[in-house]
Every structure is written in structure tokens, then in C-alpha cells.
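Please check this today:
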Amino acid sequence: MADNVIASIRATCERCGTIDVPASDARLGAAADDDVRDEVVFRCPRCGEIRSVRVDERTSRLLAATSIAVLPPAGIAPDRHSSGTPGSR
């Protein structure tokens, strides 16, 4: 049985426009100022800036079911095996 893996996420960088972000460089987490929507945080592969894009509940569930890393809710310590900042290696 194949794993639910996505290779990249299409997003928009304010500086670079439409980009494809490797899923391994993106994190899904709760938006700091919105109880309803989540956001995908990523480092733009072109300019290197940290960006985020809000996603609706359906998209959030789909991403969480794939290979994207999910950040813990605010106030909960991250897993010590997490890679931290998007795009850091």
C-alpha cells in the first residue's frame, strides 16, 4: 500500500509570486490569530524568506493526512525529533 505522500505544495510568496514548495520544507500549524483556520509555514525556495499561507479546514485535514509535518498547538513543546524551522537542515 502506498503512503500518502505529496512532493510539493503550490503557494504564493509576496516577493516571488507563485512557487512550488517541497512538502518536506513546509509545516502545518494553527494560525496565531485565527481559531478556525490553520496555516502552512514555509521558506520560499527562491528568495529564502519565511512565509505562511492560511488554509481552510478541508485543506488542513488533507495536508495532515500526507507527508507534511504538523506543528503542535501553541503552548505545547514540539517533539524533540522535529526539524524546527521550515527549510532548516
Notes: The beta strands are 8-13, 17-22, 26-30, 38-43, 50-55, 69-70. The first strand starts at residue 8 and ends at 13.
